[in-house]
Amino acid sequence: MGKLDVAAASVAVLAATVGLWVGQSSSLAPAPEPTTPAPAVPSPGPTTSPAALLPLEGESFVLDPGHNAGNAEAVAEVNALVPDGRGGMKACNSTGTSTNDGYPEHAFNWDVADRARAHLEDLGATVRLTRGPDGVGPCVDARGQAGVGATALVSVHANGSESPVAAGFFTIIVATPLNDAQGAPSEDLAAAMRASLEEEGFPPSNMVPGALQQRDDLGTLNFSEVPAVLLELAEFRNPAEAAAVQDPAVRERYAAAIADALVTLYGD
Ligand SMILES: [Zn+2]
Q1: Which is the catalytic residue, given 232, 235, 241, 252?
Q2: Domain total in the chain
Q3: Residue 43 — pLDDT band, cuts 50, 70, 90?
Q4: 120 CA distance to ligand 1 centroid (A)?
Q5: Cα 213 to ligand 1 centre (Å)
Q6: Fewer beta carbons below 10 Å: N end or C end of the chain?
Q7: Separation of 116 CA from ligand 1 center, angstroms?
Q8: What is the CATH number of the domain that holds 133?
Q9: Is 57 a catalytic residue?
Q10: Are residues 30 and 98 in the same domain?
Q11: Has residue 112 got a pLDDT over 70?
């Protein structure tokens, strides 16, 4: 049966189904709209919010809160070597930095990622996190691979520069892409994050030109098969930023900036 014959047969089936146009079923014209008025449906009230209007409906994101609360106690497990994604090996994970008064990076990363998750879910997205609020690991290779099937992977960190004058955020992507997603799509993702963080009032790094670093030694990025960016949101040894990151309202602004960037890039 040729394509047109199939179409004609479909028209015939449809015609028979709706009980109209039976005598004209040999026509190759597109199936006519049924002329029977649609049954009346109650019109939705103004407070009903159709899910179809959510901008990130159908998108999924993996958020990767860097490090973990149990890493410091699990030295052997955390230091065990895993593939780095470029033929070498590196430590499974690390403890992360902390402010001079003891606020740990892993707690900041978790809280910002969890707040961003809430924003993204409100916008219609499906979100997976690579870890819970505490525990050990996961290793960097697993974190990078966790993005498979997602729209994008965002790894949330803060920096621990020894210089107390270092300030501001920066973004990291791979220097030498291992797949298409690690190239331009990751550059776009990093650019959207920088724009959104600046719009939210956070200053770009005064140490990293353009707030963009490109590295080949980060397993999380090397293993990603989807657009991926690692965010260093603040400098934990800078006194002003160390104080700010301990304010839940500031963490909420970081989370909002992350969600805004993803809406700008991937939203309808
Ligand atoms: Zn980190």
Answers
A1: 232
A2: 2
A3: low
A4: 22
A5: 14
A6: N
A7: 17
A8: 3.40.630.40
A9: no
A10: no
A11: yes
